[in-house]
Amino acid sequence: MPNPKVSSEKISGFSSFFADLKDPRRTHQGNRLYPLEEILFLCIAAVISGADTWTSINLFGKSKLDWLKKWYPYENGIPSHDVLGKVFAALEPGAFSRCFISWVNSIADTTRGEVVAIDGKTICRSDDKGKGKSAIHVVSAFASENGLCLGQLAVASKSNEITAIPELLELLALKGCTVTIDAMGCQKNIAKTIVEKDADYILMVKGNQKGLRDQIEKLFSIKPVASENKDSDLGHGRIEHRKCEVINQLNFLDDRQEWVGLKSVIRITSERISKDTGKGTTQIRYYISSLDTDAKSINRAVRSHWSVENKLHWVLDVVFKEDASLKKKDNSALNYNIIAKMALTLMDREKSTKKSKPSKRLLAALDDNYRDKILRV
User: Fold this and answer.
1) Using CA atoms, how far apart are residues 372 and 370, in angstroms rounded to an integer?
2) CA–CA distance from 321 to each of 97, 178, 326 (Å)?
3) Is 209 in a helix, a strand, or coil?
4) Does residue 127 share a domain with residue 264?
5) Per mean pLDDT, which range of 24-38, 162-176, 256-270, 349-363 is the poorest?
6) Mean pLDDT, residues 155-178
7) CA pair distance 288, 345, nearest whole angstrom
8) Residues in domain Transposase IS4-like (predicted)?
9) In what order do the strands lie in the sheet with 115-123?
């Protein structure tokens, strides 16, 4: 229970969503020296403050024990790094993930038309070849405008994304949003699930739907384009020109009735020119969508999809050192992934400074008041 000397309002936003999470430790350990809520709070506060290992989390806790007691009693002090590792190796990640999703749903403010990108990432070095354990693959939902990870599910490999995506969609509040997924998610049941959630979809079509792709290519050779949009982007040593074309006359598209909500097919032509060499490459991508003819919005949504790479995956790798971690034991890597996403969410919602994420973590480590500010958001 929280320290009675501290206002429960301070931690209610955290504890109310994680208080019922089942403690994986054996009941015969009695009252346990370190309550699970205290361990979770310690880890999130430590990761916000720059800790990336169980040892550094333990060191943070020992040095900030007086501050931690503002929030929880910590009557028995701080658990060792071995205790932390064992708890998170045993903690059931599915239940932890559902708690995370409920918490994010309570604070997320997704707006109509917001792009929610569904994308997978393999956590490098989470495998254990000696024990025949494969690396963990996580499918995440990322609200690009708000910069929030709305939830995630772990799967055995990238090929299992097809079954994981509908399960993840069912857990999310998506009304009014536009869900974007790469070719792996171009499945009829996934389109149906998105529409049933009162959302729209833009699904990439590639080789896994060859018949559909061939028909879309043919449509663009015989049907007029209903809407077109062009934009350009300068950065990363290149110039990129994109043209988005939309067709909504689908009477020649076989099986179109089996794709729930289908209203348009899309062709995006990207031309990239190197600033150094002047050489260019052209790529054509095709999509299906429940949106109609607004090529400008569709072009923006497709471009927003890739924000999940540099605003979530890249941050987890570079800022939170997820891929450099050696958390191999049982559920450790996946549970750390959830903790890092919670820390990232809290940091992104703290708007009093425009400092970079590494600078925010350093400031949180040095300044108790700033850490308070992040955790009270």
Assistant:
1) 5
2) 20, 30, 10
3) helix
4) yes
5) 24-38
6) 84
7) 31
8) 113-346
9) 148-155, 136-143, 115-123, 178-181, 200-205, 280-289, 264-274, 238-247, 227-235
Residue partners of 80: CB distance under 8 A and separation at least 6: 58
Residue 350 belongs to some domain of the structure? yes
Residue at 3 is within a domain: no
Domain range spanning residue 230?
97-314
Sign of CA dihedral 121, 159, 108, 22: negative
The pair of three-digit structure tokens given for residue 364, joined into one six-digit string: 């949180």
Tally of structural domains, the chain: 2
We report the CATH number of the domain holding residue 209 as: 3.90.350.10
DSSP string, 312-348: IIHHHHHTS--TT----STTHHHHHHHHHHHHHHHHH
Q: What is the pLDDT of residues 232-254, one digit of tens each?
A: 887 667 788 899 999 999 988 98
Render pLDDT for 270-319 as a digit per residue (tens, 0 to 9).
998 887 777 888 999 999 999 987 899 999 999 888 777 777 766 777 67
d(CA 307, CA 313): 9
| Residues in the chain, overall count | 377
79 and 62 in contact (C-beta within 8 Å)? no
For 76: left if phi > 0, alpha if psi spans -120 to 50, otherwise beta; the answer is alpha
